[in-house]
Structure to design on (389 residues):
């Protein structure tokens, strides 16, 4: 059932008017933060719930009436903070052959005082699915990477395989306000970074490999996993299946939200800059110091001030077949305001077009059906499909 359509007013960038519909009218999910189609030729979607720690598998058709439990990690995750929980899900590109699934979640040694770290960390693990790919076997877990988290927020946590076959992981700056530890610009920490790791060619005694063409492998000052740095809290990132570019949102703090293309070796400025602008904290704690050689910085593609966006949810470039007028449009939204925009991904100076607003809907994450139709989740429990008018 169509829930909303916007009047037909075309903008100069050629972005058509669009609306949204309930993709699965018979199904509801609790804080869905991953919507992923396995690369196995089936018409299935896997949906991960943040705070329950559950992963469900559904048939990708509007008439679907059942969601089957594929995995329950509820006993392992810790959700003392709003941003913790089960955060990322990615299928190995050769999932049909090896049944490998990767998940990222937050945990800690003691689920007590949220102000006390108690071994708080992000865990990236490899799992194996059963023969028909519908159940992720909990006993198959192998921990790939653990990253200590000093605070409960800014975990990042989405994971994506790139067209190069490597696994990309975006991590926030570790939390609190102002990046008090200066992690965004530190070279020897994984926080505030995009990582790129090899989960197939793994050296003996290691749990992952380092791609030889990572940008800092020959610089001992940097962790070799780092693909890019200077991130506050990258959330909602996807590769464009046509161009191979990795698009990401980065959630701002004082005044600005941004959409970026994640580039090899790029420094995105936090906490020296917020979007295009010099960062000056309005409130304590004092920002952590930036290295003297910080920069040069990569500019975002677009920015939004806090009058229209307060917690950006990065989206994806539409490459489906059912909405041809949307082909090549980057679609994204805002968690707090419910504003939803689009712009042409190949526009060198895009001006985002406001497509619709979902007040109070909390746009949480984007994904796509097996045939490329763009979906997004809301914390009202629904998954929505974007439709052109």
């Amino acid at each position: 059932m169509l829930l909303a359509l916007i009047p037909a007013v075309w903008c100069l960038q050629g972005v058509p008017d669009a609306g949204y519909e309930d993709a699965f009218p018979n199904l509801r999910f609790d804080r869905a933060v991953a919507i992923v189609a396995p690369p196995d030729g089936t018409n299935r979607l896997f949906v991960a719930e943040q705070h329950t720690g559950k992963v469900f598998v559904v048939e990708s058709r509007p008439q679907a009436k059942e969601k089957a439990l594929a995995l329950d990690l509820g006993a392992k995750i810790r959700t003392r903070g709003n941003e913790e929980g089960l955060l990322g899900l990615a299928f190995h590109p050769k999932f049909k052959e090896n049944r490998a699934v990767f998940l990222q979640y937050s945990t800690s040694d003691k689920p007590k005082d949220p102000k006390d770290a108690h071994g708080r960390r992000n865990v990236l693990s490899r799992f194996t699915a059963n023969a028909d790919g519908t159940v992720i076997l909990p006993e198959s877990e192998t921990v790939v990477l653990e990253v200590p988290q000093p605070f409960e927020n800014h975990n990042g946590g989405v994971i994506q395989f790139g067209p190069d076959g490597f696994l990309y992981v975006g991590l926030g700056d570790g939390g609190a306000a102002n990046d008090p530890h200066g992690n965004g610009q530190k070279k020897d920490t994984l926080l505030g970074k995009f990582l790129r790791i090899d989960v197939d060619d793994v050296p003996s005694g290691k749990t992952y490999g380092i791609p030889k063409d990572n940008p800092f492998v020959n610089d001992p000052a940097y962790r070799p996993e780092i693909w890019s740095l200077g991130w506050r809290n990258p959330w909602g990132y996807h590769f464009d299946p046509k161009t191979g570019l990795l698009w990401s949102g980065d959630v701002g703090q004082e005044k600005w939200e941004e959409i970026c293309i994640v580039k090899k070796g790029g420094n995105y400025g936090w906490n020296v800059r917020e979007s295009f602008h010099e960062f000056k904290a309005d409130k304590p704690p004092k920002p952590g110091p930036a290295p003297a050689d910080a920069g040069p910085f990569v500019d975002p593609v677009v920015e939004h001030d806090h009058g229209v966006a307060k917690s950006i949810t990065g989206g994806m470039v539409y490459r489906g077949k059912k909405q041809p007028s949307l082909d090549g449009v980057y679609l994204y939204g805002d968690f707090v305001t419910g504003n939803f925009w689009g712009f042409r991904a190949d526009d060198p100076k895009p001006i985002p077009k406001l497509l619709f607003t979902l007040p109070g809907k909390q746009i949480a994450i984007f994904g796509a059906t097996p045939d490329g139709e763009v979906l997004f989740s809301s914390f009202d429990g629904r998954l929505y499909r974007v439709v052109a008018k």
Remarks:
- The longest helix spans residues 95-98.
- The chain is about 0% helix and 40% strand.
- The chain has one domain: 2-388.
